[in-house]
Design brief:
Largest sheet of chain B: 2 strands, antiparallel
Structural class of chain A: mainly alpha
Distance between the termini of chain B: 66 Å
Strand content of chain B: under 5%
Oligomer: heterodimer
Number of helices of chain B: 13
Helix content of chain A: over 70%
Radius of gyration of chain A: 22 Å
Number of domains of chain B: 1
Order of helices and strands of chain B: HHHHEHHEHHHHHHEEH
Strand content of chain A: under 5%
Distance between the termini of chain A: 26 Å
Structural class of chain B: mainly alpha
Largest interface: A-B, 50 and 48 residues
Order of helices and strands of chain A: HHHHHHHHHHHHHHH
């Protein structure tokens, strides 16, 4: 049934889908009376031409790497984890608890502790949907959606009623202690002579995200567990026949997925805000879906797609600043990417398969003559 | 709580349950035919925007309603194209539609009205009038029954009555007509329907179309009935609550009515009372917000009666060769 070469499947199909999404986005920009070329130039200028822009782009990309990896790990077991948003919310809570209520001598140790807290809370939030899917057959998409809303209400309650310092109006915790503040790119790379990344929120968590990419690659393609996850994703009956317990794999996969989504909290709560605020995830859990789809569930693809979406986010903010195009343009682009790379995948794939099949038939006929 | 307050809460329950009920029945048609639809939220949102925008521009709420339905049907068409024709993942398509709606509604609102992603407030003919049922005035003096009739049953906009009438109508279509039988069959065993010589694709498109129509009504009521105009993200998760109600009702019309009224009541109570004091034990408002979702998870878990979705739900149908 393999009608297409691997390179076409991995690169050509997503590229064409991306082009279609870009084309439609350009039409949308035209329709609201702005110049798409000019808009693109502004986005590139604001997101990529200055180190501060990169600082923002990489900050957003860090979030999307975590949520994208979370979705793609679940996809490998053919589970659709739409609950990255809730898991990241709980991850942020884990970070806040670790940073606020434990004494930390240095940020390196705090980062380690906060990462553990974030991963643990994110994983726990995925545990109930995972268990319900594995044991009771409750559809994981619906349960994780429900858990997103429950997480939002839960955090709202905690922040408003318990964690907000007395006398403060906005629902947020107090600022984390100074010892837990993570070094930003500015702290790391700026010198007296060249003030790089000034004021940008990009921070050391980005490197944690890169590590997570490598770890996920190792897990999926170089370990026994990863093999079992992929086997279950390809065929549950075959996996069961091979002695793989679907219940065990579903629960473990979702725990890993939830932990990855939870790690996003390190970047938003500890790296950027330095306190826990309401709605810190800002939809990044959902962007993870687009990132995973575009990255073809491969950590390197997820990395590239996350950078692209980081660029779109930062570029979109610049657009909103300088033109009359609101930030919601990015939501539209994100929707188009999900639509074309995810739902309408066959629309791109079917004609391409026909083209490749025709070429192969011609190639086969030629030597026979 | 005195009688007048109780009536007010129930009245507000009816209003808040209406969009949920319309969206829930929309999902019922779609999912009974085997097409999962988590894009109810998005369809309601575009319908809300376009009905408010056109009503604001023309001053006619009826034209607004038509525009809302049309917009919702366009998204239904995309969902049908992705999940029926191109056999894509229905869940991913639904997610995409929700984002498309969230983005486009604000983008177009900003372009047309320049008020930060909202429409102007609707006045006069731009909103649905409340209908006073016959004898509501004369009967209001009668104790107990009078106020119930005058306050609770009378005095809603036409879409509220349409929504409640849709419940028996949906039941009748699904369980008493040939179309309904086929529609249910295509959600359980599409290969059987196909063998009988009935078009699976046609039936599923019809179901998705009905879903779009009802979501259009729901969104339109939200922007031109419940509230006066469109604001950014005004559906506020109602599409997902409707989805929860659908599962809660186990894909049955009359139960959907019950579930939507229950969830509407929760919303009405959360709206009226911030925190509920039960003699020492305080229930925070966030619990009321989260309750529909928690109840749905409990139902899904199968501890209180098992919710079994249509068997072919979510699976694209591929004809055997």
């Amino acid at each position: 049934m393999d009608r297409m070469p691997a390179w076409a499947d991995a690169i050509l199909v997503p590229l064409i889908s991306l082009l279609l999404a870009a084309l439609l986005s350009a039409l949308v920009i035209l329709a609201i009376g702005e110049n798409p070329v000019e808009a693109f130039r502004l986005m590139v200028d604001g997101a990529l031409m200055r180190s501060t822009g990169w600082g923002y782009t990489l900050y957003y990309a860090t979030n999307f790497i975590f949520t994208g990896l979370a979705v793609s790990v679940a996809f490998h077991a053919r589970l659709f984890n739409i609950g990255g948003e809730g898991q990241a919310t709980l991850g942020g809570l884990g970070v806040a608890l670790v940073c606020l209520y434990l004494p930390w001598p240095h940020w390196t140790l705090a980062l380690l502790g906060a990462s553990l807290g974030a991963a643990l809370f994110g994983a726990l939030w995925a545990l109930i949907p995972a268990w319900l899917q594995a044991k009771r057959g409750s559809h994981i998409v619906i349960t994780t959606i429900m858990f997103n809303f429950i997480a939002a209400a839960f955090l709202n309650y905690l922040l408003v009623n318990l964690m907000k310092p007395a006398g403060q109006m906005d629902p947020a915790t107090e600022i984390f202690p100074a010892a837990t503040h993570l070094p930003t790119f500015q702290d790391m790379f700026a010198t007296e002579a060249s003030p790089l990344f000034r004021g940008a929120p990009g921070n050391v968590t980005f490197f944690l995200a890169l590590l997570a990419c490598v770890a996920v690659w190792l897990l999926i393609w170089r370990t026994r567990l990863g093999y079992e996850i992929r086997a279950l994703g390809h065929s549950e009956s075959a996996a069961r026949y091979a002695g793989i317990s679907p219940v065990r794999i579903i629960v473990i996969t979702m725990l890993i997925s939830g932990a990855l989504a939870g790690l996003m909290g390190v970047n938003t709560a500890m790296g950027e805000a330095e306190r826990l605020v309401l709605n810190a995830t800002e939809g990044a859990g959902f962007i993870g879906i687009a990132v995973a789809l575009m990255g073809r569930n491969h950590p390197f693809g997820v990395f590239l797609a996350a950078i692209l979406f980081g660029f779109l986010y930062q570029g979109g903010a610049e657009l909103a600043l300088w033109t009359s195009i609101p930030r919601e343009l990015i939501v539209v682009i994100q929707a188009l990417v999900i639509l074309f790379t995810g739902a309408l995948d066959n629309m791109v794939r079917m004609p391409l398969e026909r083209v490749f099949a025709a070429r192969r038939r011609r190639a086969r006929r030629t030597p026979a003559e | 709580m005195d009688f007048a307050t109780l009536l007010q809460v129930l009245d507000s329950t009816v209003r808040l349950a209406t969009p949920l009920l319309l969206a829930c029945l929309a999902g019922l048609f779609s999912e009974r035919s085997g097409i999962f639809d988590i894009g109810l939220e998005g369809k309601m949102l575009v319908a809300a925007f376009f009905s408010a925008a056109i009503a604001a521009a023309t001053g006619s709420v009826w034209l607004g309603l038509l525009a809302g339905i049309a917009a919702s049907l366009v998204l239904s068409g995309i969902h049908g194209l992705a999940s029926i024709t191109f056999r894509g993942n229905q869940l991913i398509s639904g997610v995409a539609i929700n984002f498309l709606a969230a983005g486009l509604s604000v983008l177009i609102a900003q372009d047309w009205f320049g008020q930060g992603g909202r429409t102007p407030s609707l006045v006069g003919g731009g909103r649905w009038d409340n209908i006073t049922l016959p004898l509501a005035e004369t009967l209001s003096g009668v104790p107990v029954i009078g106020p119930i009739y005058a306050e609770l049953i009378s005095g809603h906009s036409i879409l509220v009555y349409v929504a409640f009438l849709m419940v028996p109508l949906t039941w009748w279509i699904l369980f008493r007509t040939r179309f309904g039988l086929r529609l249910r069959a295509v959600g359980e065993a599409p290969e059987a329907v196909d063998t009988a010589g009935v078009s699976v694709v046609g039936l599923r498109y019809a179901a998705v179309g009905i879903c779009g129509l009802l979501c259009g009504l729901a969104g339109s009521y939200l922007a031109t009935g419940l509230q006066a105009g469109f604001v950014k993200d005004m559906t506020a998760g109602r599409g997902y609550i409707a989805l929860a109600a659908l599962i809660f009702a186990k894909w049955r019309p009359w139960h959907a009515l019950g579930a939507c009224l229950l969830f509407g009541l929760l919303q009405a109570v959360a709206l009226r009372y911030q925190n509920i004091d039960l003699g020492g034990l305080t229930i925070p408002v966030q619990v009321m917000d989260a309750l529909p979702y928690i109840l749905t998870v409990v139902i899904l878990a199968g501890f209180v009666g098992k919710a079994i979705p249509p068997r072919a739900g979510g699976e694209p149908y591929v004809k055997e060769r």
